[in-house]
Specification:
Number of helices of chain A: 10
Largest interface: A-B, 31 and 28 residues
Largest sheet of chain B: 4 strands, mixed
Radius of gyration of chain B: 38 Å
Radius of gyration of chain A: 18 Å
Number of strands of chain A: 10
Order of helices and strands of chain A: EEEHEEHEHHHEHEHEEHHH
Oligomer: heterodimer
Largest sheet of chain A: 6 strands, mixed
Number of helices of chain B: 12
Strand content of chain B: 5-15%
Distance between the termini of chain A: 43 Å
Shape of chain B: elongated
Helix content of chain A: 25-40%
Structural class of chain B: alpha/beta
Helix content of chain B: 55-70%
Structural class of chain A: alpha/beta
Distance between the termini of chain B: 99 Å
Strand order of the largest sheet of chain A: 6-7-8-3-9-10
């Protein structure tokens, strides 16, 4: 039972082809293509309302779309049986914007939810593993027994990350992981994601607005605009050659220049 | 004893462990995948290996043949190393990506020793009793304080009538009064019929069937109409008030109003409570009439009494004071329902879950208080001869 697929460098973790998504008469994406390589950290940038969250939800199967295919870890999600779907879902972890922790459970129990659902482990082992994850995301051990309502925003994000990492996922989806954090906490969270990614070797799909995050963490950035992915590339390449008005404004504005110089 | 191998798991991808003694060094060769998916087997292997006690020789854990490693496997390896001996046991031949993970897990692992906070069942139970026992007192204080705040807001509005939110007031009368008419009318019609039919059946033994009309008339006007209407309104409107105000509280709209110099009590609470005070007496009157109408139908069907006879009988049985006794309670019940609904809405904390809890609390408290109020009024009014 070899669950984890072999990791070769130039393999696709996610492949989106010809994605078209409409809400009523409003077209969000038209024929959108996107590749995420295994083991990379891909940032998704774009203005408000360009469909960053819609794209994430389409990939996760939370939204249906009109046309196109989404392949995750080499499997086309739409043609899978529900059994195979669950097998794929075991291989990804999702961190929602505010952590989306279950409010009736404490942090430790939240981290154990995926283990309980997908694996048959003794309680002692689950406790050990969950406490390990909680320590790895940098939460103090006494936070494990607190309900989510007693945590600060940054701690909730860390706890949500611990839950997303519970099953050692192959792909980690992050929805604006640093939004709502102060700059120091945001930088710490960026470092945490970078470290965990190097340690555990997963692929990261990260929606972000934060230029600091993009330069500190991302291997590549994909920019959404005009119903397409208009640019994909390393952050520094996008600074040198924006190629699209929004990208120019975003990366080559005052802030972008400062950050690009210092990083 | 040192050739103690993990039996049966020597295929490449299964986790395996083999211990040998080579030139004074105990070498534990680890191979296969060490992942969460095969954690059961890993634990068996480690348990088996637990029989190996190294004594004075150093132990080398050889990770050269290790294939895939995740945090669960790394934790097992780190605790295996620590269980043999944290100092003399070392990992050798590990790949660089495994090295990073093992270091990270070893760094985080001590935290796993942290025990959950001790629970003290007796103290918890005592605390729970204390909270429950003082809850009534705290609720009474909160409600009285809120009544005071509302009265103060009322006084401000009387002094400056321009502050009164007329549109909101009319809208709330429609929401709490008009839209409640169908359900209250239907329920009261049915209950009126049932009371008459049951009364006639019991009184038949005394040959006093027609007294059931007297009973229905007095019971309806004094108690049943107001209780049914008030309980229905408590269920519909107290919950609606809590949900509306609670949602605004949750989204910080109430705070926003305060910062804009708008008093939430004047704007949100007062129109709702006043609307209810106007609407509930009207609803009680509708309830009374529908109960009597239900009785009229049942009198025709069950006692074969035509409408004029029914009305004549009713006319001689009830006095107008019975109607007043019922109606006088309505504004007070309305005040209680409105206060509880708005207060629970104001007590909502940050989460959506809190709105749900407060709505439930509001309905339960409003119905409870309405019934208590009715009982107090019944005692008071009977004693004073009404």
């Amino acid at each position: 039972m070899n669950e984890t697929p072999p990791r070769t460098q130039h393999d696709y973790a996610i492949r989106v082809r010809g994605l078209t998504k409409r809400f009523g008469r409003q077209v969000i994406f038209e024929n959108l293509d996107l590749d995420v390589m295994r083991g990379e950290i891909l940032g998704i940038a774009g203005g408000s309302g360009t469909g960053k969250s819609v794209l994430l939800r389409s990939i996760l199967g939370l939204l249906t779309f009109e046309a196109g295919t989404v392949e995750v870890l080499g499997k086309n999600f739409q043609t899978l049986s529900s059994q195979e779907r669950i097998a794929i879902e075991r291989h990804w972890g999702v961190l929602f914007q505010d952590g989306a922790l279950f409010s009736s459970l404490n942090v430790l129990q939240n981290v154990q939810v995926p283990m309980r659902e997908h694996l048959d482990l003794p309680q002692k082992v689950m406790d050990e593993l969950a406490l390990l994850k909680i320590a790895m995301v940098g939460l103090p051990a006494n936070a494990a027994y607190k309900p989510p309502s007693e945590l600060s925003g940054g701690m909730r994000k860390r706890a949500g990350l611990a839950r997303a990492l519970a099953l050692d996922p192959g792909i980690l989806f992050l929805d604006e992981p640093t939004s709502g954090l102060d700059p120091i906490a945001a930088a710490a969270f960026d470092r945490l994601i970078r470290n965990l990614q190097q340690t555990l070797g997963f692929t990261v799909y990260m929606i972000t607005h934060d230029l600091d995050s993009i330069f500190a963490v991302c291997d590549r950035v994909a920019v959404l605009a005009d119903k397409h992915v208009v640019r994909v590339g390393q952050p520094m390449d996008l600074v040198r050659d924006p190629g699209h008005p929004w990208v120019r404004e975003y990366f080559c504005g005052e802030r972008g220049r400062v950050i690009a110089r210092t990083s | 004893m040192l050739n103690h191998a993990a039996k049966g798991f020597d295929q490449v991808l299964y986790p395996a462990c083999r211990a040998t003694l080579e030139g004074g060094v105990v070498r534990v060769v680890v191979s296969g995948d060490w992942t969460l998916a095969v954690l059961g087997k890993i634990r068996d292997i480690v348990d088996d290996l637990g029989a190996v006690k190294p004594g004075v020789q150093p132990v080398e854990i050889d990770l050269g043949q290790l294939q895939i490693l995740d945090t669960a496997g790394a934790l097992a390896l780190v605790s295996l190393r620590n269980s043999i001996d944290g100092k003399t046991a070392t990992f050798v031949n590990e790949r660089s990506e495994h090295r990073i993970l093992l270091d990270e897990v070893a760094r985080a692992a001590p935290a796993t020793a942290e025990a959950p906070p001790r629970r003290r069942p007796l103290a918890e139970m005592a605390g729970w009793f204390l909270t429950a026992a003082t809850a009534i007192g705290r609720d009474a204080i909160r409600l009285t304080t809120f009544l005071g705040e509302t009265a103060a807001a009322m006084a401000r509005v009387i002094v400056r009538p321009a502050k009164f939110r007329g549109t909101s007031f009319i809208h709330q009368i429609q929401q709490t009064g008009l839209t409640a008419v169908p359900i209250i009318a239907l329920v009261c019609f049915l209950i009126g019929g049932v009371i008459l039919q049951q009364g006639a059946r019991q009184l038949r033994g005394f040959g006093a069937e027609s007294l059931s009309i007297d009973m229905l008339g007095i019971l309806t006007l004094r108690e049943v109409g107001i209780i049914l209407a008030a309980v229905m309104v408590a269920g519909r409107s107290a919950s609606a008030f809590t949900a509306q105000i609670g949602t605004m509280k949750m989204r910080e709209e109430i705070d926003a109003m305060r910062t804009l110099g708008i008093d939430p009590i004047e704007t949100l609470v007062l129109p709702r409570i006043l609307a209810l005070i106007v609407a509930l007496p009207l609803l009680v009157f509708v309830a009374d009439m529908m109960c009597l109408a239900g009785g009229a139908l049942m009198a025709k069907l069950y006692l074969s009494l035509d409408l004029p006879i029914y009305l004549q009988r009713l006319n001689s049985a009830v006095q107008v004071k019975h109607l007043y006794v019922g109606l006088i309670k309505a504004p007070f019940a309305a005040l209680v329902i409105g206060l509880v609904g708005c207060l629970e809405g104001m007590s909502v904390q940050g989460s959506a879950e809190s709105v749900g809890t407060q709505v439930t609390t509001a309905v339960v408290k409003a119905i409870f208080l309405v019934l208590v109020l009715d009982a107090v009024f019944a005692i008071f009014l009977s004693a004073s001869g009404f």
